[in-house]
Amino acid sequence: MTTPLLEVKQLKKYFPQLGGVTGRKVLSEVKAVDGVSFTVNRGETLGIVGESGCGKSTMGRTILKLLEPTSGEIFFDGNDITNLSPKEMIKYRKDMQIIFQDPFASLNPRMKVFQIIEEPLINFGVKDKESRKRRVIEVAEQVGLTQAQLNRLPHEFSGGQRQRIGIARALISKPKFIIADEPVSALDVSIQSQVLNLMRDLQKEYDLTYLFISHDLSVIKHFCDRIGVMYLGKMVELTDKNSLYTNPLHPYAQSLLSSLPKSHPDEKKERIVLTGDVPSPSNPPTGCTFHPRCFSCMEVCKNVEPAFIEVEKDHFTSCHLYPNSAELQNKSIEKESVVHV
Ligand code: SF4
Protein backbone atom coordinates (compact mmCIF):
# COMPACT_ATOMS: atom_id res chain seq x y z
CA MET A 1 0.00 0.00 0.00
CA THR A 2 1.38 3.43 -0.93
CA THR A 3 1.80 5.93 1.86
CA PRO A 4 -0.59 8.89 1.76
CA LEU A 5 0.90 12.16 0.59
CA LEU A 6 -0.35 13.89 3.73
CA GLU A 7 -1.12 12.43 7.12
CA VAL A 8 -2.41 14.52 10.00
CA LYS A 9 -2.67 13.00 13.47
CA GLN A 10 -4.53 14.60 16.37
CA LEU A 11 -3.67 18.09 15.11
CA LYS A 12 -4.50 20.93 17.49
CA LYS A 13 -4.17 24.67 17.08
CA TYR A 14 -5.15 26.69 20.13
CA PHE A 15 -4.86 30.48 20.34
CA PRO A 16 -4.26 31.77 23.87
CA GLN A 17 -6.45 34.70 24.93
CA LEU A 18 -4.22 36.99 26.97
CA GLY A 19 -5.30 39.45 29.64
CA GLY A 20 -4.79 40.27 33.33
CA VAL A 21 -2.76 43.17 34.72
CA THR A 22 0.33 42.40 32.65
CA GLY A 23 -1.66 41.44 29.58
CA ARG A 24 0.31 38.21 29.49
CA LYS A 25 -1.88 35.93 31.57
CA VAL A 26 -3.59 33.20 29.53
CA LEU A 27 -7.27 33.70 30.35
CA SER A 28 -8.58 31.07 27.97
CA GLU A 29 -7.73 29.36 24.72
CA VAL A 30 -9.60 29.43 21.42
CA LYS A 31 -9.61 25.82 20.27
CA ALA A 32 -9.64 26.57 16.55
CA VAL A 33 -8.49 23.07 15.58
CA ASP A 34 -9.03 20.42 18.21
CA GLY A 35 -7.61 16.97 17.56
CA VAL A 36 -8.15 16.41 13.85
CA SER A 37 -6.81 13.26 12.12
CA PHE A 38 -7.02 12.30 8.45
CA THR A 39 -4.96 11.34 5.41
CA VAL A 40 -4.89 12.66 1.85
CA ASN A 41 -3.94 10.13 -0.81
CA ARG A 42 -1.80 10.96 -3.81
CA GLY A 43 -3.78 12.44 -6.70
CA GLU A 44 -7.04 12.80 -4.80
CA THR A 45 -9.03 15.85 -3.78
CA LEU A 46 -10.12 15.87 -0.17
CA GLY A 47 -12.78 18.46 0.53
CA ILE A 48 -13.20 20.06 3.94
CA VAL A 49 -16.58 21.63 4.57
CA GLY A 50 -18.16 23.42 7.52
CA GLU A 51 -19.64 26.75 8.60
CA SER A 52 -17.33 29.76 8.75
CA GLY A 53 -15.38 29.78 12.00
CA CYS A 54 -15.28 25.95 12.25
CA GLY A 55 -11.48 25.97 11.97
CA LYS A 56 -11.03 24.67 8.42
CA SER A 57 -8.84 27.57 7.20
CA THR A 58 -6.78 27.55 10.40
CA MET A 59 -6.28 23.83 9.90
CA GLY A 60 -5.05 24.42 6.33
CA ARG A 61 -2.57 27.05 7.44
CA THR A 62 -1.36 24.87 10.31
CA ILE A 63 -0.75 21.94 7.96
CA LEU A 64 1.42 24.22 5.81
CA LYS A 65 3.14 25.47 8.98
CA LEU A 66 2.13 29.05 8.28
CA LEU A 67 0.84 28.66 11.85
CA GLU A 68 2.69 26.55 14.41
CA PRO A 69 0.64 23.58 15.63
CA THR A 70 -0.13 23.42 19.35
CA SER A 71 0.20 19.64 19.26
CA GLY A 72 -0.28 16.66 16.99
CA GLU A 73 1.71 15.41 14.03
CA ILE A 74 1.93 16.29 10.33
CA PHE A 75 3.60 13.92 7.86
CA PHE A 76 4.21 15.03 4.28
CA ASP A 77 5.43 12.49 1.73
CA GLY A 78 6.42 10.21 4.60
CA ASN A 79 8.42 12.92 6.45
CA ASP A 80 7.49 14.31 9.84
CA ILE A 81 7.35 18.09 9.32
CA THR A 82 5.57 18.92 12.60
CA ASN A 83 8.49 20.53 14.37
CA LEU A 84 10.53 21.83 11.45
CA SER A 85 11.77 25.42 11.68
CA PRO A 86 10.84 27.95 8.95
CA LYS A 87 14.32 27.42 7.46
CA GLU A 88 13.92 23.64 7.47
CA MET A 89 10.47 24.02 5.87
CA ILE A 90 11.88 25.78 2.77
CA LYS A 91 12.60 22.51 0.99
CA TYR A 92 8.97 21.42 1.52
CA ARG A 93 7.43 24.78 0.54
CA LYS A 94 8.22 24.02 -3.10
CA ASP A 95 5.95 20.97 -2.90
CA MET A 96 3.26 22.40 -0.60
CA GLN A 97 1.45 25.48 -1.87
CA ILE A 98 -1.74 27.40 -1.14
CA ILE A 99 -4.38 29.21 -3.17
CA PHE A 100 -6.13 31.87 -1.12
CA GLN A 101 -9.78 32.89 -1.04
CA ASP A 102 -9.37 36.54 -1.87
CA PRO A 103 -7.08 36.79 -4.88
CA PHE A 104 -6.84 40.58 -4.63
CA ALA A 105 -5.72 40.60 -1.01
CA SER A 106 -3.14 37.88 -1.66
CA LEU A 107 -1.46 39.71 -4.58
CA ASN A 108 0.96 42.58 -4.02
CA PRO A 109 -0.78 45.56 -5.68
CA ARG A 110 2.53 47.23 -6.61
CA MET A 111 4.06 44.22 -8.35
CA LYS A 112 3.46 43.38 -11.98
CA VAL A 113 1.89 40.02 -12.63
CA PHE A 114 5.16 38.67 -14.06
CA GLN A 115 6.99 39.47 -10.81
CA ILE A 116 4.17 38.07 -8.67
CA ILE A 117 4.33 34.72 -10.45
CA GLU A 118 8.13 34.72 -10.63
CA GLU A 119 8.79 35.62 -6.97
CA PRO A 120 8.53 32.07 -5.50
CA LEU A 121 11.18 30.85 -7.98
CA ILE A 122 13.58 33.53 -6.69
CA ASN A 123 12.76 32.51 -3.10
CA PHE A 124 13.47 28.88 -3.96
CA GLY A 125 16.89 29.84 -5.34
CA VAL A 126 16.35 29.58 -9.11
CA LYS A 127 19.15 31.91 -10.21
CA ASP A 128 18.91 31.72 -14.01
CA LYS A 129 16.74 34.64 -15.14
CA GLU A 130 16.00 33.16 -18.56
CA SER A 131 14.76 29.85 -17.16
CA ARG A 132 12.59 31.76 -14.65
CA LYS A 133 11.13 33.79 -17.52
CA ARG A 134 10.41 30.67 -19.59
CA ARG A 135 8.69 29.03 -16.66
CA VAL A 136 6.54 32.12 -15.88
CA ILE A 137 5.39 32.31 -19.51
CA GLU A 138 4.69 28.57 -19.56
CA VAL A 139 2.58 28.58 -16.40
CA ALA A 140 0.81 31.81 -17.40
CA GLU A 141 -0.31 30.14 -20.63
CA GLN A 142 -1.49 27.07 -18.73
CA VAL A 143 -3.78 29.18 -16.55
CA GLY A 144 -5.06 31.23 -19.50
CA LEU A 145 -3.05 34.47 -19.15
CA THR A 146 -1.42 36.09 -22.16
CA GLN A 147 2.16 37.39 -22.24
CA ALA A 148 0.86 40.95 -22.58
CA GLN A 149 -1.11 40.56 -19.35
CA LEU A 150 2.06 39.71 -17.43
CA ASN A 151 3.09 43.39 -17.63
CA ARG A 152 -0.02 44.64 -15.88
CA LEU A 153 -0.83 45.26 -12.22
CA PRO A 154 -3.37 43.13 -10.27
CA HIS A 155 -6.01 45.91 -10.11
CA GLU A 156 -6.31 45.77 -13.92
CA PHE A 157 -7.82 42.27 -13.74
CA SER A 158 -11.24 40.82 -12.94
CA GLY A 159 -11.75 38.53 -9.92
CA GLY A 160 -11.52 35.36 -12.03
CA GLN A 161 -8.32 36.52 -13.74
CA ARG A 162 -6.80 37.43 -10.38
CA GLN A 163 -7.53 33.92 -9.16
CA ARG A 164 -5.74 32.60 -12.27
CA ILE A 165 -2.72 34.68 -11.21
CA GLY A 166 -2.93 33.17 -7.70
CA ILE A 167 -3.09 29.68 -9.21
CA ALA A 168 -0.11 30.40 -11.48
CA ARG A 169 1.92 31.59 -8.50
CA ALA A 170 1.04 28.43 -6.56
CA LEU A 171 1.94 26.23 -9.54
CA ILE A 172 5.20 27.89 -10.52
CA SER A 173 7.33 25.56 -8.37
CA LYS A 174 5.53 22.42 -9.68
CA PRO A 175 4.16 21.43 -6.27
CA LYS A 176 2.78 18.00 -5.35
CA PHE A 177 0.15 19.33 -2.97
CA ILE A 178 -2.05 22.43 -2.94
CA ILE A 179 -4.38 23.66 -0.24
CA ALA A 180 -7.14 25.62 -1.95
CA ASP A 181 -8.79 27.76 0.72
CA GLU A 182 -12.22 28.84 -0.55
CA PRO A 183 -10.66 29.44 -3.98
CA VAL A 184 -13.91 30.33 -5.76
CA SER A 185 -16.13 31.76 -3.03
CA ALA A 186 -15.23 35.38 -3.91
CA LEU A 187 -16.12 34.79 -7.59
CA ASP A 188 -19.36 35.05 -9.57
CA VAL A 189 -21.07 31.69 -10.11
CA SER A 190 -20.36 31.81 -13.87
CA ILE A 191 -16.63 32.30 -13.22
CA GLN A 192 -16.51 29.67 -10.44
CA SER A 193 -16.95 26.76 -12.84
CA GLN A 194 -14.24 28.10 -15.18
CA VAL A 195 -11.74 28.27 -12.32
CA LEU A 196 -12.77 24.83 -11.01
CA ASN A 197 -12.40 23.31 -14.48
CA LEU A 198 -8.99 24.92 -14.77
CA MET A 199 -7.96 23.50 -11.40
CA ARG A 200 -9.13 20.05 -12.48
CA ASP A 201 -7.17 20.22 -15.77
CA LEU A 202 -4.06 21.32 -13.88
CA GLN A 203 -4.52 18.49 -11.41
CA LYS A 204 -4.18 16.01 -14.28
CA GLU A 205 -1.31 17.86 -15.89
CA TYR A 206 0.74 18.23 -12.68
CA ASP A 207 -0.46 15.07 -10.90
CA LEU A 208 -1.63 17.31 -8.08
CA THR A 209 -3.21 16.43 -4.76
CA TYR A 210 -5.68 18.99 -3.39
CA LEU A 211 -7.03 19.78 0.03
CA PHE A 212 -10.05 21.83 -0.97
CA ILE A 213 -11.61 23.99 1.75
CA SER A 214 -15.07 25.43 1.21
CA HIS A 215 -18.30 26.26 2.99
CA ASP A 216 -20.21 25.58 -0.25
CA LEU A 217 -21.57 22.03 -0.40
CA SER A 218 -22.43 22.26 -4.11
CA VAL A 219 -18.87 23.25 -5.02
CA ILE A 220 -17.44 20.53 -2.76
CA LYS A 221 -19.73 17.93 -4.33
CA HIS A 222 -18.70 18.97 -7.83
CA PHE A 223 -14.98 18.97 -7.14
CA CYS A 224 -13.96 16.50 -4.42
CA ASP A 225 -13.41 12.73 -4.14
CA ARG A 226 -13.68 12.41 -0.35
CA ILE A 227 -15.11 14.92 2.08
CA GLY A 228 -14.49 15.78 5.71
CA VAL A 229 -17.10 17.73 7.67
CA MET A 230 -15.81 19.99 10.43
CA TYR A 231 -17.69 21.43 13.37
CA LEU A 232 -16.15 23.62 16.06
CA GLY A 233 -12.56 22.59 15.36
CA LYS A 234 -13.25 18.87 15.05
CA MET A 235 -13.78 16.49 12.17
CA VAL A 236 -17.23 14.97 12.70
CA GLU A 237 -17.57 12.92 9.49
CA LEU A 238 -15.20 11.71 6.78
CA THR A 239 -16.05 9.58 3.78
CA ASP A 240 -16.25 9.46 0.00
CA LYS A 241 -18.46 11.91 -1.83
CA ASN A 242 -21.27 9.47 -2.69
CA SER A 243 -21.58 8.09 0.84
CA LEU A 244 -21.75 11.57 2.33
CA TYR A 245 -24.36 12.91 -0.06
CA THR A 246 -26.57 9.79 -0.03
CA ASN A 247 -26.07 8.63 3.55
CA PRO A 248 -24.77 11.32 5.91
CA LEU A 249 -24.37 9.84 9.39
CA HIS A 250 -23.67 12.76 11.71
CA PRO A 251 -26.68 14.96 12.55
CA TYR A 252 -24.63 18.05 11.72
CA ALA A 253 -23.76 16.68 8.27
CA GLN A 254 -27.43 15.74 7.80
CA SER A 255 -28.50 19.30 8.57
CA LEU A 256 -25.91 20.80 6.21
CA LEU A 257 -26.94 18.50 3.36
CA SER A 258 -30.66 19.11 3.92
CA SER A 259 -30.06 22.70 2.82
CA LEU A 260 -29.02 21.61 -0.68
CA PRO A 261 -31.65 22.05 -3.42
CA LYS A 262 -33.50 18.87 -4.48
CA SER A 263 -31.77 17.04 -7.34
CA HIS A 264 -35.20 15.89 -8.64
CA PRO A 265 -38.66 17.47 -8.12
CA ASP A 266 -40.03 14.14 -6.77
CA GLU A 267 -37.25 13.79 -4.24
CA LYS A 268 -38.57 13.79 -0.67
CA LYS A 269 -36.41 16.02 1.42
CA GLU A 270 -37.01 17.90 4.62
CA ARG A 271 -34.92 20.87 5.52
CA ILE A 272 -33.35 20.51 8.97
CA VAL A 273 -33.04 23.91 10.57
CA LEU A 274 -30.59 23.99 13.44
CA THR A 275 -31.48 26.06 16.46
CA GLY A 276 -29.02 28.13 18.45
CA ASP A 277 -25.73 29.70 17.48
CA VAL A 278 -22.38 28.01 16.98
CA PRO A 279 -20.81 27.97 20.48
CA SER A 280 -17.58 29.81 21.16
CA PRO A 281 -14.45 27.75 20.45
CA SER A 282 -12.93 29.28 23.59
CA ASN A 283 -15.62 27.61 25.70
CA PRO A 284 -16.90 24.60 23.75
CA PRO A 285 -19.77 22.54 25.20
CA THR A 286 -18.94 19.39 27.17
CA GLY A 287 -19.37 15.92 25.68
CA CYS A 288 -20.31 16.13 22.02
CA THR A 289 -19.71 19.79 21.14
CA PHE A 290 -22.72 19.66 18.80
CA HIS A 291 -25.14 18.57 21.55
CA PRO A 292 -26.78 21.99 22.29
CA ARG A 293 -27.93 22.17 18.63
CA CYS A 294 -28.51 18.49 17.93
CA PHE A 295 -32.03 17.23 17.18
CA SER A 296 -31.00 13.69 18.27
CA CYS A 297 -29.26 14.63 21.49
CA MET A 298 -29.29 11.98 24.23
CA GLU A 299 -28.23 12.22 27.85
CA VAL A 300 -24.87 10.61 27.13
CA CYS A 301 -24.06 13.26 24.53
CA LYS A 302 -23.93 16.01 27.14
CA ASN A 303 -21.04 14.49 29.04
CA VAL A 304 -19.17 11.96 26.93
CA GLU A 305 -17.25 12.98 23.86
CA PRO A 306 -17.96 10.48 21.07
CA ALA A 307 -14.96 8.75 19.51
CA PHE A 308 -14.22 9.35 15.82
CA ILE A 309 -14.60 5.82 14.47
CA GLU A 310 -15.21 3.86 11.28
CA VAL A 311 -18.94 3.12 11.37
CA GLU A 312 -19.14 1.71 7.84
CA LYS A 313 -16.28 0.84 5.51
CA ASP A 314 -14.26 4.03 4.94
CA HIS A 315 -17.03 6.06 6.56
CA PHE A 316 -15.98 7.71 9.81
CA THR A 317 -18.02 9.77 12.22
CA SER A 318 -18.11 10.83 15.86
CA CYS A 319 -21.61 10.33 17.17
CA HIS A 320 -23.18 8.21 19.93
CA LEU A 321 -26.04 7.21 17.64
CA TYR A 322 -24.08 4.50 15.84
CA PRO A 323 -23.96 0.90 17.00
CA ASN A 324 -20.28 0.44 16.24
CA SER A 325 -19.49 3.16 18.70
CA ALA A 326 -21.54 1.47 21.44
CA GLU A 327 -18.61 -0.43 22.87
CA LEU A 328 -16.42 2.64 23.06
CA GLN A 329 -19.37 4.65 24.23
CA ASN A 330 -20.14 2.18 27.05
CA LYS A 331 -16.53 2.10 28.10
CA SER A 332 -16.52 5.88 28.26
CA ILE A 333 -19.74 5.90 30.28
CA GLU A 334 -18.30 3.34 32.71
CA LYS A 335 -15.22 5.50 33.06
CA GLU A 336 -17.37 8.56 33.62
CA SER A 337 -19.47 6.76 36.25
CA VAL A 338 -16.36 5.69 38.11
CA VAL A 339 -15.20 9.29 38.18
CA HIS A 340 -18.54 10.57 39.47
CA VAL A 341 -19.17 7.87 42.15
FE1 SF4 B 1 -26.10 14.52 18.37
FE2 SF4 B 1 -25.30 13.01 20.37
FE3 SF4 B 1 -24.49 12.44 17.94
FE4 SF4 B 1 -23.58 14.60 19.18
S1 SF4 B 1 -23.22 12.48 19.77
S2 SF4 B 1 -24.26 14.49 17.11
S3 SF4 B 1 -25.38 15.26 20.33
S4 SF4 B 1 -26.59 12.37 18.72
Strand content: 15-25%
Helix content: 25-40%
What Rg is obtained from the alpha carbons, in whole angstroms? 22 Å
Instruction: Let me know the average pLDDT.
Output: 90
The set of bound ligands, ions and cofactors reads: iron/sulfur cluster
What string, H for helix and E for strand, traces the elements in order?
Answer: EEEHEEHEHHHHEHEHEEHHEEH
> What gap, in angstroms, lies between the N and C termini?
47 Å
Description:
The protein is built from eleven helices and twelve strands. With 341 residues, it is an alpha/beta fold. The chain has a domain at 250-341. A hairpin with a 5-residue loop joins strand 1 (6-19) and strand 2. Helix 5 crosses helix 6. The protein starts with 5 loop residues before the first strand and ends with a helix. Mean pLDDT is 90; it is low at 331-341. Bound molecules: iron/sulfur cluster. The site of iron/sulfur cluster has 14 residues, from loops.
